[in-house]
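Model the whole thing, not chain by chain.
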Amino acid sequence: MPENRAETAHEAELIQRVRSGDRDLFYELIRPYERRVYAAALAIVKNESDAEDVAQEAILKAFRHLAQFRGEAKFSTWLLQITVNEARMRRRRITAHAMESINDQQDDREDYQPREFADWHEIPSETLERREVRDALIDALASLGEKYRSVFVLRDIQHLSIEETAKVLDISTASVKTRLLRARLMLRDLFSPGLDGHWSSKLAFAKGSKPWQ
Amino acid sequence: MAINCDAVWRDSSDYIDGTLAPDLRAAMDAHIKDCRRCAPVVSGLRNIVTLYGDERMAEVPAGFSQRLQRRIEANMPPARRSFFGWAYAVAASLLVAGAIDLSRSSSGEPPIRSKHARRAVKPLPPDLPVVVSKNGKLFHLAKCTFILNRRTSRTILASEATQQGFTPCTRCLNQYL
């Protein structure tokens, strides 16, 4: 993402050129963000094919409304805001009558008590070589409520700042911090090495549902 | 300043993100060192952030980019430009041609290992020592916590890493991206 001035200027130029009719450049403009758009959509709709469709819809919407982009926020933030709105509308349609996930009902209380268990001794990134570990991570993330999952995905997987995450989700930075802490603690509880050395997400209720695979 | 376990848990997220004030950080360090309850909480949180922060957790489905491009093309009305639109586009393309060439891979550069990664856009010191490892696609600073497969890691120069198709880590070398 364009953190430096040359890249930002290049992006502003691309936006200007697409607006004035050079439409072929639109894909070049959004290409650096397509993974983020997809991940943000998936964090909310939880299903790969819905997420891909939402990502495509959001990107097309950004194209149609590019004239309204004022450059006050970063282009990436604006694009992700559109994505989050699109994904939430889709999710409302999908789960109109379905039950919300249990931990979505919880508020942002801070009296959470982490579970106690043994320390991890393995070097984390090496464990990712194992499919079972990646599956367990995916399961654990999918089981979080949307408000925790969306903050966690934007911040810890897509590496947005606290401020950008707040802007994209239209919540306060204080809420981002509280939900992020809660999401990390829940994931730590859900995902841990067992006494037998096997890794598993400790989920009784999310079996068979692995939208991140 | 002494703090209790509740305070440690409350600030543990900021602690691992490194955004705490120095005095609070020192108090946390002191508590965690001696607390059998808090040490595994903090190390577990750090592991969670490291694991999910890995590039392999942010992949898009195969063919995603191609399908997206097709959808964009299918939904674009045929371009109709005014004379001024054309004139502007020509002038703008002359102006920015240089900038685009810089950010695009020129044909002389080696292919990159990760189809999602981006090359450095700011000049990297060619003699900067960096760490790469087996099956990794990125290169890192030695202090980075996101080095994959650290047991197989080796140190080479940034210029060599680039030549071999590695791209800079988005965490520790973000300043060059």
